[in-house]
Every structure is written in C-alpha cells, then in structure tokens.
Amino acid sequence: MTTRIAVATEPGYEVLVGAGVFEFARELAAPRDVLVRDSGLPEALGWLETSGAIALPPGEEAKDWESLGALLGALAHEALDRSTTLFVVGGGAALDLGGLAAALYLRGVEVVYCPTTLLAMVDASVGGKTAVNLPEGKNLVGVVRQPRAVFADTRFCASQSEAEFRSGLGEVLKCAVIGGERGLESLEHDAAALAKRDAAALERTIARCVRLKARIVERDPLERGARRVLNLGHTFAHAVERVAGFGRVPHGVAVAAGLGAALELARAAGVLRDATLPARVRRMAKRLGLPASIDALREEFSLALPPRKLLEAMRHDKKALAAQPRFVLPERAGKVLHGVACEPSLVERVLAPKRKRAPGTARPRRA
Ligand code: GLY
C-alpha cells in the first residue's frame, strides 16, 4: 500500500509513504536530473548504482563546507541547468546537505528527497529545513526551502542497524506526545509491531508523524512560533549530544531521554496538567527500547553528563535568548508550550543524577 500526504506549504508537495515508493521516484526522474546519494548506503538498490550518481560522505560527515563545496562543484562540472532536479537519497545529513546545495546552485533548482532512515522519514525529509554544521555548532547555516516531493520507502528501514532504527523511534515517540491522545493511543497500539519493523505498522506510523509535521509546518514554515513545538526534548538532547561528544549518543535516543527530562521539568515548573503523562511515556519508551530519562542515558552510555556542563551547553542552543535557554514543555499530550523560560536552579535539579550507584559499581566515564 501507499499513503499519500499533501503538504500545503508554498509551494506545496506530496509525501508518499510505503514499501516500494522508491520506484516511483525513479520513474519521475528525467535524463537531465541528478542522483545524489549517501555513500554509506547498501549497493543492492538498483538505481543507486547508476553511473553519474554523486556520492556524499556517509552520515554527519557530509554536513560541512567542504562537502557542500564539492557537491556544488560537481553540479557545475556537469554544467547542469535550472531544469535539473536533484534526487537526494540518504539519511537526514545527506538530505540537509543536498537540500542546501539545491537551494544555492544557480540560485535554486528543485530537489526530491528519498529518505533511507526512519529518522529522516519522520523528520528531516518534511518541512524544508536544510543545513550544514560549523565547528561552533550543529545546523548553524542553512535555509528553509520545501522539496518538490518526498518518497519514504519503508523497505529502507529493514536494512538499518538496530542503533539507527532505535534513533528514529525516539522522534516517533516525540511525535506521539505532540499528536495528543490519538497519537499516543496509535503508538501504544503499534509499538510491538513497530519494534519488529512490520511494514504496515511502519507505514502507519511514518504517515502519522508526517501528517502531524505537515499540519504544523503549514502554519509556521519558518519556525517563528508554532513549529517550535517540534523541538520537544531537543534542548536537552542537543546539550547531551554536545557534552557527550557529537556522534556518541544517536540523536533520536538523546531526544527520547530529553523528552523524559522535559516532562520532569514541566512537572517541576508547574506547567504539566496531566500527571499520568510521564509514566505513560516512560512505559512506551521501555516498549520501544528507549531511555526515558537523562539518568537512563548516563547508565546506558556510561556517561557522567554533569548538570552544570549540560546547562552551559543549553546556553549555546539556537533557541536560547540572551544566553538563557528556552524550553518546549508539555502541558498534556497534544498541548505543548514553547519559549518557556525556567530558573537555572530548577533545570539543574531536573538534570541532577537521581540514581545512587550500587556499592562497588564503576563510576561513569567522564564526559
Ligand atoms: N526538526 C524540527 C523541524 O523540522 O522543525
């Protein structure tokens, strides 16, 4: 089956979700179009072996000036004109870089995204954010520019490593909380099948996340307000990723732990109206094999993650105002506030390790 979701931005586009939709992308491509692919992808994907495809460095390595310059140089070398569409096949990093190159080359050519990871299917491929990193931080340079179409082929999820797939589940959990009662109930219903990467459960779940994101991005494409709710759990997650060292904790796994921390902070700050939500999210995280708190992350990755270092990292977050972190906090499922300022002492209390180490167990590695 294929699910089609219309995204009513300016311009609008369709997201196709299902097993086999990659073939539709292939049929759409004209001879002048260019395939840009993540070089880390498995070879047995037919179209990807096409000679003339431009290969990007694998994963997050792709998101720097050098790779952007190399990709723009390759497009210019082929003397591609404005009628060219870039078909970008890969994870979130490849899509972020390919989308930015498409926005810059000849002041803008069209781009089609074929996400190959669960994380990119539910997040990076929809909404038009593009970016490269700077040594000073992640995603500091980019534009918002919507693609021509998105083809999310669930078959790609089958070849993902367990760690990569789990990272996608972190964003899925975040979407369920933003999606309200129906979002949570649907994920509760699909969690077991999803963990087994069942094709129908994947299609339903990805489609739900894409629909949710589409409705939010349509209202606020440039993230002036409402779109910020999609950053639920991210202020904590980015701080964890920075303090642990980028690449050590997969992004979506950090988001799951960040979501737990956001719920704790919402309770401590008196924002949370549904007292049952934290336990419900914890149960769901457990079923999906995700950490539901910063403490669980500390334990799993043997990290110290000192509260003061995390707090310091939050002051550098893109969403900080005058070096004061701003938080996205749930009131209840489906009602999420953004731009919330909290006392640093309160945040530090939430970040403080709560689990006592059993006598004789090793102290976590410092980071
Ligand atoms: N990743 C959040 C957004 O696209 O707004």
- Specify the CATH class of the largest domain: Alpha Beta
Strand content: 15-25%
Order of helices and strands: EEHEEHEHEHEEEHHHHHHHHHEEH
- Identify the quaternary structure here: single chain
Detailed description of the structure:
With 367 residues, the protein is of the alpha/beta class. It folds into two domains: 2-160, Rossmann fold (3-Layer(aba) Sandwich), CATH 3.40.50.1970; 224-351, Dehydroquinate synthase-like, alpha domain. It is 45% helix and 16% strand. It is built from 14 helices and eleven strands. The chain has helices spanning 21-28, 65-77, 92-104, 118-124, 155-158, 162-178, 180-195, 199-219, 234-244, 251-268, 277-287, 294-301, 307-315, 344-351, and strands spanning 2-7, 13-18, 34-38, 54-56, 85-90, 110-115, 132-134, 137-141, 149-153, 326-332, 335-341. The strands form three sheets. Strands 1-2-9-6-5-3-4 form a seven-stranded mixed β-sheet, sandwiched between helices. Strands 7-8 form a two-stranded antiparallel sheet. β7 (132-134) and β8 form a beta hairpin. α6 (162-178) runs parallel beside α10 (251-268), α10 packs antiparallel against α12 (294-301) and α13 (307-315) crosses α14. The mean pLDDT is 92. It binds glycine (GLY). Glycine (GLY) binds next to loops.
